[in-house]
Design a protein that fits this description.
The complex is a heterodimer. Chain A has a single domain, classed as Cytochrome C Oxidase, Chain A, CATH 1.20.210.10. In chain A, 67% of the residues lie in helices and 0% in strands. Chain A has 17 helices and no strands. The longest helix of chain A has 34 residues. Chain B is of the alpha+beta class. In chain B, the strands form three sheets. Chain B has a five-stranded mixed β-sheet with strand order 3-2-1-5-8, with helices on one face. The C terminus of chain B is likely disordered. The chains are: A mainly alpha, B alpha+beta. Chains A and B meet through helix 3, helix 6, helix 10, helix 11 and helix 12 of A and helix 2, helix 3, strand 7 and strand 9 of B.
């Protein structure tokens, strides 16, 4: 793959290129050197493998759900089994894939590299968070293997506490433990960003990826304990009947909804903010241009995190909250949509007067912008009080959050994985095959979830095993789309694995990107930097990069 | 390519039977749809804008055409533009949505009331005249109908998409929703809150009928006893009449004419007597003690079903004189001498 005018890929001469003799991957060998490592890069790789494993389990459940919904009759599996499918799909995808996806993999790998640090502030806590993730994951798998859980990922009381006799406590305990893994990651990021920036790396020279992960970390640290408390209360109510949520004992069933959504709405921003950080990096790199309105993008992340905490009751508009709180929460929901709009327009204007190329990460980023716009705007439908009455608890809301979480976050995640793949492994992924995967994913995604908006307005409720026959055509389209989408997700798995051995040698900076992580060897050394970098330029300073490259050429020549 | 005529016919029928937009069968539906189309319009315009910015810039500034990027800091004017315009649009959506919300959830004063009890996994409707229905609801067109709903077990949600209404049905708490059907016909009722194994079988039909047909239906399906009459029987058999005699100076407050009035409580606050207050006062009497009375009433938690509570509430609602209670009192006193006749 040589550099042509239509691409910025700048690979070393493949005949002479070698992977760096010493790097974090071959520094130590053996399984124990991985399982006991404190290296943030190795932990990131272990996280990447783990979340990919859980993604495909969660994805298999999604496939089974779509297969069942191919026909209006409940004919593939029994109702209880179907309920377990969507519960496991939700629990695995939310807690074991989406929440840790970008922060624990790309964030773990890149955060110290981007700010010029040797590692995260607490390497052992970082490793502990990975173990906690797996302990929680094993509890979830145990709940699955022992017969599943059918509460839905929302654990609604009193259904979860009094009426179901599946493995609710096991699954809740799993999520409780995973919660600590996410708190530790957040804590580690916050301390690292505050205390370990390289000399000259001021707050406003930080890459936007760091800003958005910082905002997400705040949410993780402040929000997750509330989820933990809620799950403990559910477990206590179920086992000893303390009666916090049970109306016959003077409890309040709505209290559960308040507590649960107090975490789970901010959790949506935990999931999307790091993805937004990826998009900022990718769009800037492939248009060779500073991110338009750097401060606006940085502060919009913080604004989203801040407002994100005060919109939870918009999940409860039809549950009989008072009119005043409905009004306040609807208004705040409208306000939280503004920073997202700001980001979209800033990304779009980053393209203006750039010098744009269309490598795979950029295609995924474009996909993200389109799908996230739809996801965000349909959120406004749901935030508008009167409209929410008709749309909530239907397939409209299913389509909405899949546009944000899958169309948004998963696109951003794949964009980031392709973008930093050369840095993580030292090798390039195959470009044309990955472009095909990006386009397949985009088409499959739209075919899967656009019909669900129509189904939602027709009134098809979510979590239905069977449905009236007039909804079949749209469901068939959706299932067909899911098949295409499944292929789109299998492809990267295959060719990225292939590239580990056969991919072209990437060199330090194949994209000619400006971040500190691109100025060192790929894959990096265990200690990241040979000498502490001194930062004397802003983020996305392509003139500095051009100047630096020129100097290197003169020095070498 | 040759398609067999049988398959072709099947496909045509299948596609024709499929739905793309719900019917507008209530007075609220056109209002909801108006906001929906406005939001759809804003979304499509926004999407076209973002799409044309991306594609426009991507084509115009691609590397072949524009090999060297021009670095730009940003622009406060543009930032302000795309802060203020979306904000203004979202605020319009907020106000419009709020107006629609209050239109959907504030019932007209002249609406007729039907009780709905949700339980795993069925809807039970109870009309004032004592007609009971399972997974069905008969209503007249052209008349506002309010549903007073409660769940006997878990959260359910009562949804009629063709009316564009939905409300959570909560254990231990009445919630209400109202609609006015405009077109006679049959419409889906869905439970939209996941409620366990047979969640997707918790469905039913609303049948909207002309007022004449509705009258005929009412007469043909009565059980003989109205809700209030059932309530009166319960009132006597649970022994309520022992204290709530309506005689001044008795141990318990007078119930006749109570509904809709304001009661002063022992802590000095005032409370409006509505369905929820009556229900709570039966189940948790010590929570709200009427001023001047001792907290001596026992709780009836667990002794009476939601249907029974509805009967009692409906009975007290319609009670305007204590004459029959005092009659009951006399009867039950005589009954005490003959224990065999206590069970009604």
């Amino acid at each position: 793959m040589s550099a042509t005018s239509s691409t910025i890929v700048n690979l070393p001469d493949q005949r002479t290129a070698r992977l760096p003799k010493r790097n974090y991957l071959n520094n130590e060998n053996g399984l124990l050197s991985w399982l006991l490592t404190g290296d943030h890069k190795r932990i990131a790789i272990m996280y990447l493998i783990s979340i990919t494993f859980f993604f495909f389990i969660g994805g298999a459940f999604a496939g089974l759900i779509r297969l069942e919904l191919l026909t209006p009759q409940p004919d593939l599996v029994a109702s209880d089994t179907y309920n377990k499918f969507f519960s496991m799909h939700g629990i695995i995808m939310v807690f074991l894939f989406l929440v840790p996806s970008v922060p624990a993999t790309l964030g773990n790998f890149l955060m110290p590299l981007m700010i010029g640090a040797k590692d995260l502030a607490f390497p052992k806590v970082n490793l502990l968070s990975w173990y906690l993730y797996w302990i929680g994951g094993l509890f979830t798998l145990a709940a699955l293997v022992l017969g599943g859980v059918d509460t839905g990922w929302t654990f609604t009381t009193p259904l979860s506490t009094h009426y179901l006799n599946t493995h609710v406590v096991t699954a809740a305990l799993g999520i409780f433990i995973i919660g600590f893994s996410s708190i530790f990651t957040g804590l580690n990021f916050i301390v690292t960003i505050h205390r370990m920036r390289a000399p000259g790396m001021t707050w406003f020279r930080l890459p936007l990826f760091v800003w958005s992960n910082y905002a997400a970390s705040l949410l993780m640290v402040l929000g997750t304990p509330v989820l933990a408390i809620t799950l403990v209360l559910v477990a206590l109510e179920r086992t000893v009947g303390i009666g916090v949520f049970d109306p016959t004992k003077g409890g309040d069933p709505l209290l559960f909804q308040h507590l649960f959504w107090f975490y789970s709405h901010p959790a949506v921003y935990i999931m999307i903010l790091p993805g937004m950080g990826v998009i900022s990096e990718v769009i800037s790199t492939f248009s060779r241009k500073r991110v338009f309105g750097y401060t606006a993008v940085a502060f919009s992340s913080v604004a989203i995190a801040l407002f994100g905490f005060f919109v939870w009751a918009h999940h409860m508009f039809i549950m009989g909250v008072s009119n005043y709180s409905a009004l306040v929460f609807s208004l705040l929901t409208m306000l939280v949509a503004v920073p997202s709009a700001i980001k979209i327009f800033n990304w779009a204007f980053t393209l203006q007067k750039g010098s744009i190329t269309f490598e795979t990460p950029m295609l995924y980023a474009f996909g993200f912008m389109g799908l996230f716009t739809i996801g965000g705007m349909t959120g406004v439908f749901l935030g508008a009080l009167g409209m929410d009455i008709h749309l909530t608890e239907t397939y409209f809301i299913v389509a909405h959050f899949h546009f944000v979480m899958v169309g948004g976050m998963l696109m951003a995640f794949l964009s980031g994985v392709h973008f930093w793949w050369p840095k993580m492994t030292g090798r390039m992924y195959p470009e044309s095959l990955s472009k095909l995967a990006a386009v397949t994913t985009f088409i499959g995604f739209n075919l899967t979830f656009l019909p669900q908006f129509i189904l939602g307005y027709l009134g098809m409720p979510r979590r239905y095993h069977a449905y009236p026959p007039e909804f079949q055509v749209l469901n068939v389209l959706s299932t067909a789309g899911a098949t295409v989408l499944g292929i789109g997700y299998m492809l990267p798995m295959l060719y990225l694995g292939w590239s580990l051995k056969y991919g072209a040698i990437a060199g330090n900076n194949p994209w000619q990107a400006t971040g500190l992580e691109w100025q060192i060897q790929s894959p990096p050394l265990t200690e990241n930097f040979i000498e502490v970098p001194v930062v004397d330029h802003e983020a996305y300073d392509y003139e500095w990069l051009a100047h630096k490259t020129e100097q290197e050429v003169t020095t070498v020549g | 390519m040759h398609i067999s005529p049988v398959l072709w016919q099947f496909l045509v029928k299948w596609l024709n039977a499929s739905a793309l937009f719900p019917r507008e069968a209530s007075t609220i539906a056109p209002y909801a749809d108006a906001l929906y189309f406005f939001l759809l319009f804003v979304t499509i315009v926004g999407l076209i804008l973002v799409g044309s910015l991306i594609f426009g810039f991507a084509i115009r500034y691609r590397k072949e055409k524009h090999p060297v990027a021009t670095q730009v800091e940003g622009s406060t004017l543009l930032e302000a533009t795309w802060t203020i315009i979306p904000l203004a649009l979202f605020l319009i959506c907020f106000v419009w949505g709020a107006l629609l919300y209050f239109r959907i959830y504030n019932p007209p004063t002249n609406s007729m009331n039907i009780y709905v009890v949700g339980k795993q996994w069925m809807w039970k409707a109870e009309h004032e005249g004592g007609q009971h229905e399972i997974n069905a609801l008969h209503v007249p067109v052209g008349r506002p109908v309010q549903l007073t709903m409660i769940s006997q077990d878990v959260f359910h949600s009562f949804s009629v998409p063709d009316f564009r209404i939905k409300r959570e049905v909560i254990p231990g708490r009445y919630s209400t929703v109202w609609f006015q059907a405009t077109t006679p016909g049959s419409y889906h009722i869905f439970c939209t809150q996941y409620c366990g194994t047979n969640h997707s079988q918790m469905i039913g039909q609303v049948t909207a009928m002309t007022p004449e047909d509705y009258q005929k239906w009412l007469q043909s399906s009565t059980s003989g006893m109205s809700l209030a009459q059932n309530g009166e029987r319960l009132f006597a058999s649970m022994g309520c009449n022992a204290c709530h005699t309506g005689v001044a100076g008795n141990r318990a407050p007078n119930l006749a004419g109570l509904y809709g009035s304001k009661v002063e409580l022992s802590d000095g606050s005032q409370v409006l007597v509505n369905d929820a207050y009556l229900r709570d006062s039966i189940l948790n009497p010590s929570q709200q003690i009427a001023a001047g009375y001792a907290p001596i009433m026992p709780t009836f938690q667990g002794q009476i079903s939601e249907d029974g509570l509805i009967d009692l509430v409906e009975y007290i609602k319609q009670l305007d004189t204590n004459y029959r209670i005092q009659q009951m009192h006399v009867t039950s006193q005589t009954d005490e001498t003959t224990p065999a006749a206590v069970k009604p």
